[in-house]
């Protein structure tokens, strides 16, 4: 595993995603370009992932995945076979597992929910929403690469809040239903270490203070 330091920006300072708008099914290449290219973060594959932390993806840690890791993800996602709602619940469980799995390598065991300005100068082990939205997008792409998503596909991360609308900038990973086209926010920034990300309709997430 290797840590790489780059110059990053905090979630509270800016969010470099476009607002959500209806569009055709998004390809992996589109998601990877939108989520990772601005930060030169490597796309995940079944053998390794790159975890962002330290605010604005300032630090990146490579984590190697084993056969046991892939088997555990398959076991978790098997609980979501019955329906799209069940699959989203399984994704939430997988998100908590993923957070615990990468913590030893990334040093993020102590990360808190909604880490913000108070961690600006002590944030190596913390996630802002830039970090968390990319990490959750990494997990969603990994699940899709492993053919563990039946009802959904990973989508381009979405931002809300532009200061002038009296809301702080925030970003989330997105999962979209293959049949209905409904998009769901998968937001782990609001959760502490080892907790499942919040999953809610993207329209509700965009409208709220969550």
Helix content: 25-40%
Uncertain residue ranges: 1-23
Record field, number of beta strands = 7
Largest sheet properties:
4 strands, antiparallel
Strand content: 15-25%
Give the averaged pLDDT, no decimals.
87
* Number of domain modules: 1
User: Can you list the strand order of the major beta sheet?
Assistant: 4-5-6-7
Shape: globular
Number of continuous helical runs: 5
Q: SSE order, as H and E?
A: EHEEHHHEEEEH
- End-to-end distance: 34 Å
Helices and strands, with pairings:
Blueprint: E1 3-5, H1 28-36, E2 48-53, E3 59-64, H2 67-78, H3 84-106, H4 129-145, E4 152-160, E5 170-177, E6 183-187, E7 198-201, H5 202-207
Antiparallel strand pairs: 1-3, 2-3, 4-5, 5-6, 6-7
Helix pairs in contact: 1-4, 2-3
